[in-house]
Request: fold
Amino acid sequence: MKSFKLKRLFLVSFVFIASLTLFSPAAVQAAPLLYDDFDGTVLDSSKWNVIEGGESIQLSDGIMTMQGDPNHKRIDSFDSFQPSGDTLFASARIQLGGNYQKFGFRINAAEFSGPVCGFYFDTLENENGGTVTALIREVSDTDTVTEILTVPIDVTWNEFHTFTIEWSPTEIAFHVDGVEKARTSFVCDTPLTVGIWNDRPESMLTDWVEVINVIPVSIDIKPGSITNSINPRSRGVIPVALLSTDTFDAMMVDPATVKFGANGISTSPAHFAIEDINHDGMDDYIFQFRTQQTGIDCNTESATLTGEAADGFIEASDSVRPVGCQSANNGTPPGLQNKPDKPDPPAFENHPVHDSKPGKDIHPEPNTPGQNKIKTESKNK
Ligand SMILES: [Ca+2]
Ligand SMILES: [Ca+2]
Ligand SMILES: [Ca+2]
Reply:
């Protein structure tokens, strides 16, 4: 009898999950605005305009090498780009080998006259090598060059790194290997090309270049909690809601492309479900990510969700507050180590969810240790 009921429950659950799977949005592929993996034997002349030194540019095994002589070698994208509400991300996987090697939007703004801007990574001339500088330069009507940002960043040369420039309508940020290194408010409203430049005999190798458009979306880490306390040592999962709005339908996102994390690390969801999390009449996604795989540590202040939708890539961040990080013997009374978080609702335990690994049960992240302690203590008094 009991076994029959269990079997029936299992069957009902299976049908429900199967039907959810059937009605999940079809896999969508967001197309980059520019992508070149440098496969082939010659530079793709539909994507790149060789400004100087074309004879020094070679393609082999999926790598573009700029080498040869001390003259300028430079290619610019034929397309120019400009963020319009969304944010542009220009990335390249590059191996630097010498001074004066550059990647970015309108490399060397200084050589243009009139009001133009340029932002790029530049190895500059330096004595020691191994530093790339995040640069923003603006040239005025009177050809005056203003340096908006100059931030040296240590990198190892003769190794591949991923350099990314994040260009929103109001800010520019520089990332190396997924970690943000510099950010400043800066408005540049001219469409710009993406360029690669090598001005020295040392080789500069590029594995790929990509420019993508990212639609800003809204997420809620730990729905129901404002502080979003997370214990980085937890073996549980972190619930993250991807919310629909009047201008964005979360259902257009392919859940298979969603990732979440911090500090250059990200992970795919262990579970997901469709539910109107904020009760506004529009379906949202609720994802659960294994805490241990998110890269969130005791110094993390925010975490980011990324994914692909039908008409572009999505990205959103929300704050996190690491808890349970202080050692037990640091002199702080345990109850004062963490302010009590607003109690989280039992949330998603009662809702059917997709499970990428059937049979494995993952418990939602328990309340923070500080919170439990305070509750227990007040009960005992
Ligand atoms: Ca390649
Ligand atoms: Ca929250
Ligand atoms: Ca909703």
Observations:
- The radius of gyration is 25 Å.
